[in-house]
């Protein structure tokens, strides 16, 4: 049943996103700790999170910076990891494309894995007005992004005070498993996921995390080809 008002849609989005704060918090905390250990000060660490707002990309860039990788490699790797955001934007365009330019620009900054996953599932399941779609999107952002900033700051301030025995890094795989699993709805999705995992592991030996770039490109090609094959098969069956 669709929300009866934009306010209801916003509250529903915030409620749906709230569980993700339990994995975003240690993820952001870990980044704050790792960034300060790598030599960034508190202001630089917080600015990094505010400017990029993409955990996986931030960790990839930070690791390459600590390895003294060339700037071009750092930027290329960060962009490759964040390439999914462009696909997220394209996927949301049919639902939010009629919003004012300033609204779309602001929403583009706040598209993260959690806000995209929740929003696209909601939009595909229910018939909402544009105002309700926007309200739901901002509701899904409200608990997650501020928490990312706050916990990054906490991690940067805490620094080495957090014992190494505390397994903060568990948040990274759990976050992506929770996001990806509900979205594996077609054969193309499954093929892309399997290919990405296989290529990432197979090319893990490449320096500067270049294996991630290979995996990303290969997964998109595999998923696209699977879609083409499925469309041809459906066409032949008609």
TrEMBL record:
A Pfam family per the record: AzlC
GO biological process, one term: L-valine transmembrane transport
Transmembrane intervals: 20-40, 133-151
Keywords recorded for this protein, A-Z: Cell membrane, Membrane, Transmembrane, Transmembrane helix, Transport
UniProt-annotated location(s): Cell membrane
Domain of life: Bacteria
Keyword Cell division: no
GO CC terms: plasma membrane
Topological relation to the membrane, as annotated: Multi-pass membrane protein
Protein name, as recorded: Branched-chain amino acid ABC transporter permease
Keyword Signal: no
Family membership noted in the UniProt record: Belongs to the AzlC family.
């Amino acid at each position: 049943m669709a929300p009866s008002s934009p306010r209801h849609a916003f509250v529903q989005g915030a409620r749906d996103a709230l569980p993700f704060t339990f994995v975003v918090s240690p993820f952001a905390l870990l980044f704050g700790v790792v960034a300060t250990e790598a030599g960034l000060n508190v202001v630089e660490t917080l600015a990094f999170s505010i400017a990029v707002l993409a955990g996986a990309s931030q960790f990839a860039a930070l690791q390459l910076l600590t390895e003294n990788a060339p700037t071009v490699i750092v930027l290329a790797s960060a962009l490759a990891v964040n390439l999914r955001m462009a696909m997220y934007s394209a996927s949301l365009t049919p639902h939010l494309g009629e919003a004012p330019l300033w609204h779309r620009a602001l929403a583009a900054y706040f598209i993260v894995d959690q806000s995209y996953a929740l929003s696209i599932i909601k939009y595909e399941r229910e018939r909402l007005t544009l105002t309700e779609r926007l309200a739901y999107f901002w509701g899904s952002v409200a608990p997650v992004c501020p928490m990312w900033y706050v916990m990054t700051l906490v991690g940067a301030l805490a620094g080495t005070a957090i014992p190494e025995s505390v397994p903060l890094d568990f948040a990274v795989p759990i976050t992506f498993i929770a996001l990806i699993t509900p979205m594996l709805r077609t054969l193309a999705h499954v093929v892309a996921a399997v290919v990405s995992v296989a290529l990432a592991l197979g090319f893990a030996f490449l320096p500067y995390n270049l294996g991630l770039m290979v995996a990303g490109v290969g997964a998109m090609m595999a998923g696209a080809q699977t879609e083409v094959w499925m469309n041809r098969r459906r066409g032949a069956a008609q």
